[in-house]
Design brief:
5-stranded mixed beta sheet, mainly alpha, about 550 residues, 25 helices, 3 domains, globular
């Protein structure tokens, strides 16, 4: 690619040593882009503190069957990701390191799988392009740096695709067929949509009938090994949970919530993150799948030729990626991260053409333009922040960070790379800008914002204000409060945002039951039941004003 293609791709080399060198390059680049900064920040809301808290409680309680938040059952997601977090915490002993390890290792796994599948379907050079492209795609590298479930889900869906495509396109290989189904089972007990790779069988059956090319024959007994592997993996958690739920009403409610409400009901009748049908196509993919989306004018004609040429190596992953996007588009509830599992398949459909496209002047200009646009955007942010003094002061007060410095450094990096490399080395310039921006975020932005974003600063303030000899209760608490607080606390249920009044009344009854108690409340709960109680203002945290109240609740709540 670019003028450095020969030196980087080493097209004449195909030995095992060359493959090992590719693995070393891809893993090293992944560590540079993703692992830098690990240990320099704590878990950040919305999801990271909750997940870290669940993992910590698993380790301390020894109860690994079902996730819990502050002792309350957590039915939003199955437990596999939390098991991995808990294992990371056990292995490292450091919450700051452990909470990001599953995403890092999952990302490396995805890159290796995409490289190896592309290498086997086309060539070692295409594999190297595919792995590097995936790593430099905006959504993938960003999610790999977060402690959310989706990077781990992406690994299991990619492993499932790898196994199924090794069988369907490069087989028959019944061992990989079973691995593909088993990985989908792991995906299901990571997040319910982990079954999606199995939908690749739909376009495969259509193409098999339409094109009549050398797909593996259908042997019922051997094919059955796949579904059995899937059922076996899912049952390894589901069966013990179902047995436990027979004798425990709370677990029975958890069972019904996770099997029905958080799966089918959430998909069919979503109650939050509601977006229009075209949300992914119009607002997510055009930005988060850069730089590949910018190359569609050159990719689409080549995909058309692949269809005419009956090339399932391109058509099958492309159709599956489209199925995933349509699947999530049909649900009213949408988040940009939902389509992440489709990205490795999309990269596979693009990779065989990138070496050719990199020699087209207009392609290089587009990629170079993306690198320059990043610098221009950051330079514009510097100018805007300089004149918007109120906004700048607010950001400094809220997050402890003056954004001018990091934005100026990223802009300068982009300008220097643009001047030195020019459009001839557009892909190198783009990769350099991405690397520079992520290093600035890792070593400057994240550490500066950590105290404010993580909630640790607020918890320290709470612990200084709270009386050491009084019991402490929390109303409407955030997970980071439980994660960082160093003293015993009482709370009145996790995530009762749909029944805030009832939670506040429960807290009021607790306060009225005896003296020697204090309560952390936000402005809503205070106005509802503690307007006349003594209250110490603790300031704002996550856009809510908090108070430490003592004494009796209002008479209408006691």
């Amino acid at each position: 690619m670019d003028g450095l293609a020969s030196a980087w791709l080493r097209p004449s080399q195909s030995s095992a040593r060359a493959i090992y060198f590719d693995f070393a390059w891809l893993i090293g680049l992944a560590l540079l882009l993703i692992a830098t900064g690990i240990g320099l920040r704590d878990p950040w809301p919305a999801d990271e503190p909750r997940f870290a808290l669940i993992a910590r409680d698993m380790v301390t309680s020894g109860d690994w069957l079902v996730p819990r938040v502050g002792g309350d059952l957590y039915a939003d997601k199955p437990p596999l990701y939390f098991w991995l977090l808990a294992l990371s915490l056990t292995a490292t002993g450091s919450p700051r390191i452990a909470f990001l390890l599953p995403s890092l290792l999952s990302a490396i796994g995805c890159i290796v799988l995409v490289y190896d599948l592309a290498r086997r379907m086309w060539s070692r050079e295409v594999g190297l392009i595919a792995g590097t492209l995936l790593l430099l795609t905006a959504q993938f590298v960003w999610q790999a740096r977060q402690a959310q479930i989706d990077a781990t889900l992406c690994f299991f869906t990619t492993l499932s695709l790898y196994g199924l495509m090794r069988h369907l396109l490069l087989g028959p290989s019944w061992r990989w067929h079973a691995v593909g189904w088993a990985a989908a089972g792991c995906g299901v007990i990571t997040k319910g949509v982990g079954f999606l790779p199995l939908l690749i069988l739909v376009p495969w059956l259509v193409l098999r009938a339409r094109w009549r090319i050398g797909f593996p024959p259908v042997h019922a007994a051997k094919w059955l090994a796949g579904p059995l592997a899937f059922i076996g993996v899912v049952s390894s958690w589901l069966v013990p949970m179902l047995f436990a739920a027979r004798a425990d009403l709370a677990l029975a409610a958890y069972r019904d919530e996770i099997l029905f409400v958080q799966t089918a009901a959430r998909y069919v009748d979503a109650w939050h993150h509601v977006r229009p049908f075209w949300y992914f196509i119009a607002q997510v993919i055009p930005l988060l799948w850069l730089p590949l989306i910018a190359l569609l004018p050159w990719l689409v004609p080549r995909w058309r030729e692949a269809w005419r040429g009956r090339d399932p190596r391109v058509v099958l992953p492309l159709l599956w990626a489209a199925i995933v996007v349509v699947f999530f588009s049909l649900s009213a509830g949408k988040r940009g991260v939902y389509v992440l599992p489709a990205l490795p398949a999309f990269v596979l459909a693009c990779a065989p053409y990138l070496s050719e496209l990199s020699r087209i002047a207009n392609v290089r200009r587009v990629v170079f333009g993306l690198a320059v646009a990043t610098g221009i955007a950051c330079a514009g942010a510097v100018v805007y922040a300089h004149f918007a003094e109120t906004l700048r002061a607010q950001l400094i007060a809220t997050y402890g960070l003056d954004a001018i410095g990091p934005a100026l450094l990223i802009a300068s990096t982009a300008i220097v790379l643009a001047v030195l490399l020019r459009p001839r080395y557009a892909f190198v310039a783009y990769g350099g800008v991405i690397l520079g921006a992520l290093l600035v975020v890792s070593f400057w932005v994240n550490p500066a914002m950590n105290d404010a974003r993580s909630g640790a600063r607020f918890v320290r303030q709470l612990e200084r204000a709270a009386h050491a000899d009084l019991e402490l209760g929390l109303v409407g608490f955030r997970e980071e409060h439980l994660l960082y607080i160093q003293r015993p606390v009482v709370h009145f249920g996790h995530a009762r945002w749909r029944e805030r009044e009832a939670e506040t009344f429960d807290a009021a009854s607790w306060m009225a039951a005896r003296t020697g108690r204090q309560l952390l409340v936000d402005d809503y709960s205070r106005s509802l039941c503690f307007a006349r109680a003594d209250a110490l203002a603790l300031g704002e945290d996550k856009r809510r004003s908090w108070y430490l109240v003592t004494g009796q609740p209002d008479s209408n709540c006691a």
